[in-house]
Request: fold
Amino acid sequence: MTLQVPGSPASSYAQAIERARAFMARDDASVMRRARTALHVHGERRPLAVVLLHGYTNSPAQYATFAPLLVQRGINVFVPRMPEHGYADRMTKALAHLTAEMLVASASQALDIACGLGREVAVLGISMGGTLAAHAAQFRSIARAVPVAPEFALLKLPHPLSRLAAGALRALPNFFLWWDPRVGERQTPATAYPRFSSRALAQTLRVGDAVYGAARREDPLAGRIVTVVNRADPAVNNKTTKSVSDEWAGRCGGERVRYVELSDLPTNHDIIDPENALARTDMVYPKLLEALGV
Reply:
């Protein structure tokens, strides 16, 4: 199952802005102001537009510091809020309704919008957003894709065991777990949820499975793919991520595909959020800008 959505690229800057405003109109008073979809534009179509995709239980606020770095370089930037994320009620149960189809559809709509914002389109995402960026790399004819810490396999589990675990989570009744039981609702950042849904987590892994399988059967469509991981990431299996990158490189060659492992970071999954004390954004952001080619 590829979970592909037929693209409908915006044909002009004006159409892109119209669609972006419609996307942003989904964010009513129930959504935290800082967690709402963000659009940063220069009033015209630019050579490059970048879509930034946030992580599981996080929100567009994850890019509050990184997005301006792109804007300063003359790039139009769109940061969509993914379905069921960013609500002011951080203890909401809405996340349990999330599906892989909803995620792929929203990411596809964001990429369609970006087609009108830039002559070329790039996507960067972390964790769940990294998996969606990898999906775009495989199935969309975009210029560049930068999956960061994508979810192809949980923890240090081999991919087959991770798939079994995800299947069990889909079959079992939904339950919520604290990201850190020691702090519970006090978990930071304040623009993210302090707990996660078991079924929604399994749905994010469905997106990863679609990419994992397709990478072994067909060429990716993105012009350039740079996968970035933290060697000390405790949440995902980097070996599985590298195997996907190796499949891409085997089909496309090293000029189009790179795998970058950051080796001097703390044990940490979210290496982008400025409110994560372990993110070391001073070291990470330059690497991400380099990966994007800007």
Remarks:
- The mean pLDDT is 96.
